[in-house]
Amino acid sequence: MRKDNVVLFSNKAINDSSNGKDHTGSGNPPGGGEMERRMQALEAAIPDIRDKLTRSETKLDSIEKHGATKADLASTESTLIKWYVGTAFALVGLTSAMAFGVARLLQ
Q1: For residues 60 and 89, what is the distance between their CA atoms, to the nearest angstrom?
Q2: What is the pTM of this model?
Q3: Distance CA 66, CA 22 (A)
Q4: Cα angle vertex 41, ends 35, 45, to 5°?
Q5: Residue ranges of the alpha helices (H) in the chain?
Q6: For 64-94, what is each residue's pLDDT tens digit?
Q7: What is the pLDDT of residues 43-57, one digit of tens each?
């Protein structure tokens, strides 16, 4: 088993990522004093978020109501194939009839 692509970290390197700041035991939340301002901004944005969510749900309901299912698509595909084959036979028949009619007139 190759180990040349494995990098080992010591516990000191992992635990010393705070750059000398204590974010877990000082009684202050992580992020400093900015947390209160950030929470107020999020709370102020909630009505706009709710409005957008309501519009998205309305659009989704419309898509579900008018959207095609796999069964609908399979049915449509088989109907189209039948029409293409029927049209091809009709065109071959019509072309043959015209060719024989023109050949009879020319004789």
Answers
A1: 43
A2: 0.40
A3: 56
A4: 140
A5: 11-15, 34-66, 70-106
A6: 888 888 888 899 999 999 999 999 999 999 9
A7: 999 999 999 999 999
